[in-house]
Design brief:
Elements lengths: L8 H5 L5 H14 L5 E2 L11 H12 L13 H15 L8 E4 L2 H12 L5 E6 L4 H8 L3 E6 L1 E3 L3 E3 L2 H6 L5 E7 L11 H14 L2 E5 L24 E6 L12 E4 L2 H12 L7 H12 L1 H25 L15 E2 L4 H7 L3 H12 L1 E2 L1 E2 L12 E4 L4 H21 L1
Length: 406
């Protein structure tokens, strides 16, 4: 009796989960057995949420007793703080009533996909990709159409603009762009973003932007899609607090759409989550408004730039591994095709070997949708120098061990 409704059961079973959570569980099991586990798979900062943000939340709970329902799209002061951040940072003209706050960026991405996609629609997804875009689209009967990023170890990952435009059909409703990019660590150039916007204008399709890593850019510029004067005509913008302020467990994200659409989406949001957690929204205001928080962010980004360089230097030169120094987010995504061919393993077998024999956890590329991902592995450098040095050492030892056995 208590089973998924017929017709949806197969759909749910075929949805790709998020591999990172699976490997977090594996790491905990090994740690319980007494192993020193090195986990370079986790997509979150290693530092806790800044103290000033935590203190504001405690104040909201204990002093203000701010524990009741709020407005569905979020409290006015948080929506205004978000609009001010985007306007000051990117020269935009976002209004507070164009902001919808939700329980994490995943929540507002789901809201956007639910609102715009239906049976038979298509959404173009550059890959390798974070799973939520394609998997949520499937739930509403839409078809994810994957297009591979171009890669070489000297220039990294780039959008294939020509291939994206060729994939547009009368059924295409959206193109996804996650920038800076998970899992590759790419930051797409202004020229690439300009070209993507021209495609959206020309073909009258929406761009679904996920800029959750916008503060993690280590060199070069970053062109936000919210910075274009005509963004209201073709953009659904999402961002959040999880990465910048190390608030992954707080679940606080937001979307920006033109006012007329925001008014409609509020009705959908109230029937999904009602409202975001009240006291968490107070934390969001503090995070955005307090200059001390941004000093904390600057220190974190500077440290991760250093950790990235240490990881790159350690991985560079390992036989069969093509590594590129990522420019954003906090991931490195080396191609391991040559290595896997030499040791005659799939990427999943290789990852399990690392876990079982070296207690090192990284993500297989197959944790991300589409076939080309299976040729890669993802490292996170959002951790300490000691963890990175030891993790890269174990990785190198495992590779040398396997090459000797072949």
């Amino acid at each position: 009796m208590n089973e998924p409704i017929k017709g949806y059961k197969a759909l749910i079973e075929n949805m790709l989960g998020e591999g990172g959570f699976v490997y977090i569980a594996k790491g905990r099991e090994l740690a319980k057995k007494g192993y020193r586990v090195i986990n370079l798979s986790i997509g979150q900062p290693d530092e806790p949420t800044p103290d000033n943000v935590i203190d504001e939340t405690i104040r909201a709970l204990k002093i203000e007793k701010f524990t009741r329902y709020t407005e569905t799209p979020g409290i006015p002061e948080l929506r205004q703080a978000i609009a001010d951040y985007l306007n000051e940072r990117y020269g935009s003209d976002v209004r507070a009533d164009e902001v919808i706050v939700g329980p994490g960026t995943k929540g507002v991405l789901f809201l956007a996909i639910a609102a715009y996609l239906g049976e038979g629609d298509e959404i173009i997804v550059p890959e390798p990709t974070y799973p939520v875009y394609s998997e949520a689209a499937k739930l509403f009967g839409a078809k994810p159409v994957f297009v591979s990023l171009e890669f070489n170890s000297s220039e990294g990952f780039k959008l294939d603009i020509e291939a994206i435009e060729k994939l547009i059909t009368p059924r295409t409703k959206m193109i996804v762009i996650n920038n800076p990019h998970n899992p590759t660590g790419a930051v797409f150039s202004e020229e690439e973003i300009d070209a993507l916007v021209e495609i959206a204008r020309k073909h009258r399709v929406l761009i679904l932007a996920d800029e959750i890593y916008d503060n993690f850019v280590y060199e070069g510029g970053f062109k936000s899609l919210i910075s274009y004067p005509d963004w209201r005509e073709w953009l659904v913008y999402t961002n959040g607090f999880s990465k910048t302020f190390s608030m992954t467990g707080w679940r606080l994200g937001y979307m920006v759409v033109k006012r007329e659409v925001a008014q409609v989406l509020r009705r959908l949001a109230v029937n999904i989550w009602g409202c975001p957690a009240s006291f968490v929204q107070k934390a969001g205001v503090k995070a955005l408004r307090d200059p001390d928080t941004w000093k904390w962010v600057d220190r974190l980004v500077a440290r991760y730039r250093e950790m990235r360089d240490i990881m790159y230097d350690g991985l560079n030169g390992i036989r069969g591994v093509e590594v590129w120094k990522s420019r954003g987010a906090f991931y490195m995504f080396p191609r391991v095709t040559k290595l896997l061919n030499e040791i005659n393993m799939s990427v999943e077998e290789f990852i399990n070997y690392l876990i079982d024999n070296h207690q090192l956890i990284i993500l297989p590329g197959s944790a991300f949708p589409a076939d080309s991902s299976k040729n890669y592995v993802r490292f996170s450098f959002a951790t300490s120098r000691e963890e990175i040095v030891e993790g890269v050492k174990r990785f190198r030892e495992a590779v040398e061990e396997l090459l000797e056995k072949k």
